[in-house]
Design brief:
Blueprint (H helix, E strand, L loop, with lengths): L5 H11 L2 H7 L9 H6 L4 H22 L8 H6 L7 E4 L3 E5 L7 E7 L16 H17 L6 E4 L15 E5 L9
Antiparallel strand pairs: 1-2, 2-3, 3-5, 4-5
Protein name: Histidine triad (HIT) protein
Pfam families: HIT
Organism: Corchorus olitorius
Length: about 180
């Protein structure tokens, strides 16, 4: 078996994130911790995963922004039409609230207007949208009460590609059920 150099180990780590396994499995190397073992016993997996996830979110957001103003149906339109199943938390004649399929907290509910009316993102709101914007916020309060998080929750609106908005149908995220930190990121 070829001898492993520090450079080879680091190159291997870049590909697999597993220097420790390589060092421990290599014959002729000391079983005692080395500086490489010590420094990489817990590889920075979280950082590597976050960079990848962030890239995916950014890519999805940019792709969605291309079709933002075409009027094409979004996944939310299909949920409103009951073509796609969802766990509905609250519904009235103008607003629908349902659980997020990729929750970022124990409680994560999306609140959307049933009629888009050109309101694809908050940055494009006009005076005619004033009433529905108020209804969305009040529905967020009702959702928080129904979900038992009225004592502490967060309402988030991502507006535009730079905010990683991935569905261009205005929506609020109602998030809670755990201690929220500030700043969020």
């Amino acid at each position: 078996m070829a001898a492993l150099t520090s450079f080879a180990l680091l190159r291997n780590f870049g590909r697999t994130g597993r220097i420790v396994a390589s060092v421990r499995a290599s014959p002729g190397l000391s079983p005692f911790p080395t500086s490489i073992n010590f420094l990489t016993a817990n590889p920075p997996r979280r950082y590597l995963c976050r960079a990848s996830a962030k890239h995916d979110e950014e890519a999805a957001s940019k792709a969605a922004a291309i079709n933002a103003d075409t009027g094409a149906p979004t996944i939310f339109d299909k949920i409103i039409a009951k073509e796609i199943p969802s766990a509905i938390v609250y519904e009235d004649d103008k607003v629908l609230a349902f659980k997020d399929i990729n929750p970022q907290a124990p409680v994560h509910v999306l609140v959307i207007p049933k009629f888009r009316d050109g309101l694809t993102e908050l940055g494009k709101a006009e005076p005619r949208h004033e009433e529905i914007l108020g209804q969305l916020l009040y529905a967020a309060r009702i959702v928080a009460e129904k979900e038992g998080i009225l004592d502490g929750f967060r309402v988030v609106i991502n507006s535009g590609a730079s905010a990683c908005q991935s569905v261009y149908h205005l929506h609020l995220h109602v998030i809670g059920g755990r201690q929220m930190n500030w700043p969020p990121g």
